[in-house]
Amino acid sequence: MKLLITGARGQLGIQLRSVLERGKSELGKIDDIYSNADIKYVSHNDLDITNLNDVLDYVEQYKPNAIINCAAYTNVDRCESDIDNAFKVNAIGPRNLAIASHIVDAKLLHISTDYVFSGEGNEPYKEYDMPNPVSVYGKSKLLGEQYVRDFCDKYFIVRTAWLYGKYGKNFVYTIINAAKERGYLEVVNDQRGNPTNAEDLAYHILKLILTDEYGIYHCTGNGECSWYDFACKIVEYTDIKCRVMSITSDKIKREAKRPSYSSLDNMMLRCTIGDKMRNWDDALKSFIDVLESK
After folding, report:
1. At 144, which CATH number?
2. Cβ partners under 8 Å of residue 196, min gap 6
3. Is the pTM higher than 0.85?
4. Rounded distance, CA 276 to CA 203, Å?
5. Do residues 129 and 87 lie in contact, with contact meaning Cβ atoms separated by under 8 Å?
6. Helix, strand, or coil here: 137?
7. Helix (H, G, I), strand (E, B) or coil at 58
8. What is the domain extent for residue 125?
9. Angle between helices 198-208 and 280-292 (to 10 degrees)
């Protein structure tokens, strides 16, 4: 098996590499096929996915059996002013990978986001629900999804949310550091979603891509909470002495609007390969226990 992973220096890309090198995740062993796989981990310095000719040359020369696209422009606020680059990375990049994967008959697994939804609902979004993004980031990610569907046949679109992991910047590290420094935090309590441990997501990605169960998937931690609830659990599990106060979103000035309710339902996982994603607070507790054991 030949596997190409783009965005390999990002949070999820590094987590995938960690699981692949260990041959397992906290959820269990991954398939033995990966132990003998030829895997290329590429970042922007190795391959500019926004350049079609570069992507075609690279993919046609390597001829992977599967591509996992973790590359993304994820600074939600900056996307509002850096519109062209947001669409280049989040839409044109996936389009180029889709075109190339179709040419070499490779599977493409593309990572997307809960921000493709408006957030106006009050129950978890399913894969068939109509997207309606409210930010440039969400719109660019939705166009990326559409291009993947338009330009290749063997695709998996995996929407995730509120991702955190061992590597890179994320909400968990931000709260831990701020709680230690300040001892007092204000966190919004009117946005709800699903915190997702990158270890769990990586496991399901590597399981899914070995199948022919093509289509759109939601893959997040089970259960939902607000950012305030999430922060309270982080402080509780790390045993940091810090007071956490809830505030509303209008108290924070941000460039981009966030969906107020973006919880996802992992329905298609349950219907195909099975949903082993942990409840969000169990996965968080495990993550912090591992952090503190080192």
Report:
1. 3.40.50.720
2. 160, 161, 162, 163, 164, 219, 220, 221, 277, 280, 283
3. yes
4. 9
5. no
6. helix
7. helix
8. 2-170+196-223+262-279
9. 110
- Report yes or no on 275 lying in a domain: yes
Q: Do the strands 66-69 and 2-6 form a parallel or antiparallel pair, or are they unpaired?
A: parallel
Residues 36-92 have pLDDT tens digits of 999 999 999 999 999 999 999 999 999 999 999 999 999 999 999 999 999 999 999
Residue in 224, 263, 49, 258 with CA at minimum distance from that of residue 138: 258
Q: Helices in 152-197 by DSSP H: which ranges?
A: 171-182
Judge contact between 113 and 138, C-beta under 8 A: yes
Residue 137 a catalytic site member: yes
Read off the amino acid at residue 248. T
- The amino acid sitting at 268 is M
Structural domains in the chain (count): 1
Structure tokens at 113: 């986001």
Position 178 in a domain: no
Q: pLDDT tens across 158-195, in order?
A: 999 999 999 989 999 999 999 999 999 999 999 999 99
CB 128 within 8 A of CB 164: no
Give the pairing of strands 225-226 and 192-193: antiparallel
Calpha distance 231→113 (Å, rounded): 21
CB 58 within 8 A of CB 2: no
Planar angle of CA 156, 157, 162, nearest 5 degrees:
135
Q: How far apart are CA 50 and CA 140, in angstroms?
A: 13
Is the CB of residue 206 less than 8 Å from the CB of residue 30? yes
Q: Which of 62, 115, 125, 137 is catalytic?
A: 137
Query: Is 28 domain-assigned?
Result: yes
The answer to the question of residue 290 being in a domain is no
List phi, psi (to 5°) of 92.
-65, -40
Q: Are 192 and 226 in contact (CB under 8 A)?
A: yes
Backbone Cα Rg of the chain: 19
